[in-house]
Design a protein that fits this description.
The complex is a heterodimer of chains A (about 110) and B (about 110). Chain A has no helices and eleven strands. With about 110 residues, chain A is mainly beta. In chain B, about 0% of the residues lie in helices and about 55% in strands. The chains are: A mainly beta (about 110), B mainly beta (about 110). At the A-B interface, strand 5, strand 9 and strand 10 of A face strand 4 and strand 5 of B.
Chain lengths: ~110, ~110
């Protein structure tokens, strides 16, 4: 039982490049989330998926797209990376038997030059 | 978007001291959570609170859900080196979306 896994751990992009951040959970959770963490800002919600086949915008969705591929996987895509998207990205899933208890992945550190 | 006011922003303490931090919101929450984040890792849940006035412990950690439902407190007793990290509060209205505080960075002075 690996919990929530994320790939890659580190990535450097040039402005305008695209990439997809991968997330998977093996806890059979329905809801999954993508956050970004910037210094002094805490975690801000980018997108979330309450169930397979559904996605909704969070607080800071601009510049991102998501795909809930199946119950296990939730990917975050940057179509045209910008320096303002330099951040640490965390994926999380929630255990619905105990509302609002989220489990986080180890994070992806992204730098956009 | 809304973020919770968490204080203090940072703390420098000696090993063995007790620690107190708090989180306040302009809105009422149904759930308060406290997380700890180690360098290079994702946040890990420490304590979850689901009822106003609730006091819950997890080892040396004790957290309280404020009576007004607009605040929460976390205390750490007899701090040890592994307590170093960033502590985040988070609140929820019960819709599975969390609002996070800006974090309290705890440093233990040798």
């Amino acid at each position: 039982n690996a919990g929530v896994t994320q790939t890659p751990k580190f990535q450097v992009l040039k402005t305008g490049q695209s990439m997809t951040l991968q997330c998977a959970q093996d806890m059979n959770h329905n809801s999954m989330y993508w956050y970004r963490q910037d210094p002094g800002m805490g975690l801000r919600l980018i997108y979330y998926s309450a169930s397979e086949g559904t996605t909704d915008k969070g607080e800071v969705p601009n510049g991102y797209n998501v795909s809930r591929l199946n119950k296990r996987e939730f990917s975050l895509r940057l179509e045209s990376a910008a320096p303002s998207q330099t951040s640490v990205y965390f994926c999380a899933s929630i255990r619905t038997t105990l509302p609002d208890t989220q489990y986080f992945g180890p994070g992806t550190r992204l730098t956009v030059l | 978007g809304q973020q919770l006011n968490q204080s203090p922003q940072s703390m420098f303490i000696q090993e063995g001291e007790d620690v107190s931090m708090n989180c306040t919101s302009s809105s009422i929450f149904n759930t308060w959570l406290w997380y700890k984040q180690d360098p290079g890792e994702g946040p890990v849940l420490l304590i979850a609170l689901y009822k106003a006035g609730e006091l819950t412990s997890n080892g040396r950690l004790t957290a309280q859900f404020g009576i007004t439902r607009k605040d929460s407190f976390l205390n750490i007793s007899a701090s040890i080196p592994s307590d170093v990290g960033i502590y985040f509060c988070a609140g929820s209205f019960g819709n599975e979306k969390l609002t996070f505080g800006t974090g309290t960075r705890l440093t233990i002075i040798p």
